[in-house]
Amino acid sequence: xxxxxxxxxAEAAVRDAQTDTVAxxxxxxxxxxxxxxxxxxxxxxAPTCQHERKPGKSAGEWLAIGCGVCVAGIGIAFxxxxxxxxxxxxxxxxxxxxxxxxxxxxxx
Length: 108
Known about the structure:
Shape: rod-shaped
Number of domains: 2
Strand content: under 5%
Helix content: over 70%
Radius of gyration: 51 Å
Order of helices and strands: HH
Distance between the termini: 163 Å
Structural class: mainly alpha
């Protein structure tokens, strides 16, 4: 081997290294560009609702509502029974007074 051959090999290696350096720089630039694009996509805020949600009723509130409905139902039932009794009494009074009136008209 002559001295020219190792020198030529060294020059070829330098050329390859320069070419590889440019390729590596391009690859790194592409990676940085991809990172920047990803950061911009993540930085965009997600759309959110603009109204405020009202908090729901607690278990105690639902229990109170249920008890109120039960008490109101029982009250309506008792009122219906009282109205029926009053109607029966009124009918009885009417029949008794009618019979008295008929007796008075006949002269008894």
